[in-house]
Design a protein that fits this description.
The chain is of the alpha+beta class. It has two domains: 133 residues, Glutaredoxin (3-Layer(aba) Sandwich), CATH 3.40.30; 44 residues, Antioxidant, Horf6, Chain A, domain 2, CATH 3.30.1020. Helices cover 31% and strands 22% of the residues. It is built from seven helices and eleven strands. It has a five-stranded mixed β-sheet. A hairpin with a 6-residue loop joins strand 1 and strand 2. It is elongated, with a radius of gyration of 19 Å.
Length: 212
Amino acid sequence: MATLRLGDTAPDFTAESSVGKLNLYDYLGDGWGIFFSHPADFTPVCTTELGTAAKFKSEFDKRNVKMLALSVDGAASHKEWIKDIEETQHSQVNFPIIADEDHKVSDLYDMIHPKANDTLTVRSVFIIGPDRKIKLILTYPASTGRNFFELLRVIDSLQLTAYHKVATPANWNEGEDVVVSPAIPTEEARNIFTKGVKEIKPYLRMTPDPRS
């Protein structure tokens, strides 16, 4: 399959998981989703990631984001690995892990990069919107664990910019000033953003976070 790109429809699938058979679209419902892959079970960086992800679940829940992981091992292996994760990371794995021994889902989402490793997935991240479109794609090498604070930050940005005519500047965090869309003339922007518009340059206008 061709490489997935931003704006593509996230491919649906049904697969076994640590909690039984799961269909992606049914699982996500009408909310957002974050889908992330792990090279294999019983690997050190993945163990820390899944334990950390579990600790962040309440933050994802606040944002109406369902969490879903994948590893190329089977469901029975996942269940044994979860025991290790919970023991060593002191957190309960509270989201499903897709079993993908036949690489069906990994191939569907282009999670295996042969030049990195021809059998194990890289650390892929897909954020999927309520419209089933892919809103963000991140790819980490197997040696680098993900930053879940950053994943929450980009979800905050994606959800803000999906519903307001703004963009978020470098290093933005929720509640900070945002950039007015260049497509909106300044006078119109002043009517839309009643908290004020600061014109730094004609193409660079800032306004307070419209949700704060």
